[in-house]
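Form 7-S
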Amino acid sequence: MSEKKAELPDRLCMDPRSDHFDADLLERGIGIMFNGVEKVNVEEYCISEGWIRIAAGKSRDRYGNPMTIKLKGKVEPFFEEDRKAD
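Output:
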């Protein structure tokens, strides 16, 4: 499982316009444990800086993108297929 962990990037974003977007990884299914709790509404994460961005309700900015808030804490991404195997 440590080999799989090495494949996960330090930073990943769900927005296709971002430099940190990776469609292939997102298709595999990425899960996020944040401070020991699994989060399902994560828009972006950064392991080294210890933060996630989650959607702030149904709020949208003037371009129609979801408004996000940044939460700081321990970020642990995982492949959902690995979680199901356990």
